[in-house]
Design brief:
Layout lengths: L2 E4 L4 E10 L31 E6 L8 E8 L7 E4 L3 H7 L11 E7 L2 E2 L2 E6 L4 E2 L2 E9 L2 E7 L12 E2 L1 E2 L8 H4 L4 E2 L2 E2 H6 L7 E8 L22 H6 L24
Parallel strand pairs: 10-16
Antiparallel strand pairs: 1-2, 2-4, 3-4, 3-6, 5-16, 6-7, 6-8, 8-9, 8-13, 9-15, 10-11, 12-14
Amino acid sequence: MKSLISSSSFWLFLTFYHNAIVSVSSETVTWTGCGNFGDTAAELTVGKGSALCLQVGNSLNWVDGANYLRLSFTPEVDQYSRFHVQNSYTDLIRSTANAPFSQRNLTVSVSSQTKISFLRQYYDVVNDLVYPHLTAIVDVSSGNVRGVTWDDGCMFCSSNECTPVIYNYEGELQSKGQAGQPVGGCPLTSAECAVDPTLCDLTLYVVWTGTDSDSLTMQSSASRFSMFPKQDLGDRWADSLPEAPSVPGFGNNDENNNGRDM
């Protein structure tokens, strides 16, 4: 595994997987984990780094097989953070040369320790719509991750525009009751993305809730978008936040399609 970018606050890497079959379900997920979680030293502590993984797949149904890539970064625990994948809208969606992701339904999930979220649709190929507003909530108890959920994405549009975008790994669209969390997202059209493609890039916001290894109560979940009035969201979406370095664009070369490490 090659590290793309290193800094005092964040590390990240990018791996492409070819034709991976994922054995997971909506409730019990077989997952090898994200980061070093095998000892008590890896318990989450406020102010220290903890690995998070963002998976991007080319299908709504991962159980039957999906090509996917995984990006990993290490924000500080309980710091409201943003992870921007540079040029991802152009490289994954608009580039016809970047198979197997171009012209496919794209879904994302987030994992921490051995817990993984439901799938959230990022690109709807049938209607040519992007759902870019991604906020993951990491739920922690005494330093151990209990789960990863998605924040309400309906804050960025009217109620009649908001669309369910949460799926289990068999490709079944989930209701709020089934998923136990908000399931809506606000779409942007290709015309809107063309004006400013960065608005449609993969951009993950992360907040934390619960208690760390020292029993400190985490505070950052109060900063998530759903906690603020809609009229304030435009400025908050554009505001500078503590942020991982942007990942270089995926590009349109053959290495992207052969399951090789970058």
